[in-house]
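Quick start: load a record and inspect it. Here is ABC transporter substrate-binding protein:
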Amino acid sequence: MRTPRTTRRTLLAGAAGLAMPAIARAQAVSEIEFYFPVAVGGPITKIVDGYAADFMRENPDVKVRPIYAGSYVDTLTKAVTATKAGNGPQMAVLLAVDAYTLVDDELILPFDTLATGAEDKAWLNSFYPAFLRNGQIDGHTWGVPFQRSTIVMYWNKDAFKDAGLDPDKAPANWAEHAAFAEKTTKREGDRTTRWGVQIPGTGFTYWLFQALAIEAGAELANANGTKVNYNDPACVEALQYWIDLTAKYKAHPPGIVDWGTTPRDFLEGKVAMIWHTTGNLSNIKANAKFPFGVAMLPAQKRRGSPTGGGNFHLFKGATPAQQAACLRFLKWVTSPARAAQWSIDTGYVATRPDAWQTEAMKAYVAGFPAAAVARDQLEFAVAELSTHDNQRVTQALNDELQAALTGRKAPKAALDDAQAAGTRLLRPYAR
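Running the structure step on this input writes:
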């Protein structure tokens, strides 16, 4: 039976009317905000702004707005406060170790529940396992690695040469490290004009200590984040060595060395060796007026460094459309080419193996082999200290480490007190 012409027109008009909202929806712009910490020197904000602009040019249906929120601690506080008030960001780059807190407070979503297609799963599994560990809790992946690092040792080759050392050889173990630090310390009368080594004791005290503890053979916490091992005998050995660099070898400034000024002290020739994040590699490369080297941290019972830095986290307040937009942006910004360029521009470690196979990264490493040190150290890396109630559990350790470094407590007493505090804070999570 033929459809009357008027009826056909009515049906077509109705179909067109139904189609219009679908077209409008297809053209609708999804807006996403992400908080980003700016805590390390360098033109980070310009780089991130450039990524957002480039992504939006390629994806005009998504508007991306980065918000720079200060330090990692500031960023966490602002993101949590805004989210609980109902006006938080859709994503934030936060320390990978904050995952337990975000999960316990039911603030974030696991990426594996969104990245369910074959291509999405392959992307989520493309990162170095060492960088994924902090974000893997209860069988889910809660963090996408982005601004990641390890601790490395930088040394001034001129200072080594001046002290009669091979300028191209870094200390391989604690004994050599202490001996090199002694030899490169320079004094004029009672005044020290150049220290042999600086290990920062502010900002990320626990992180630097964890490197020493790993090298001494200790793990600071269990894999479930429910128990700490702060007063393990190997931890006591590690803290004693840190103190001995000052008290015994006279090669490290007394008291607590500041995290933020340590790279500047190195660049100004005030110290021959520093332990610091790979995130400062580009800064030091751009500003050092002397030849320098980059090495894995020296070993004691083993080599090792904790991983560090920030992951992208997805907050529950994001709508389904925003979740999809976030996933698209993350796949774009962590692609091999961009992961490689981010590493070249900042010094952070490219977070996936295929980034190191890009032509840009291969050319960069060929001209600057030091860039590969942090990547190679991943073989010996351990997940950064992370527990439930992480900030308070970590702060308990920071406080006691600083008490020991300033001579107010003996190493074992300080770590016993840190252990007691950590055990008390974690009691509700014991399982």
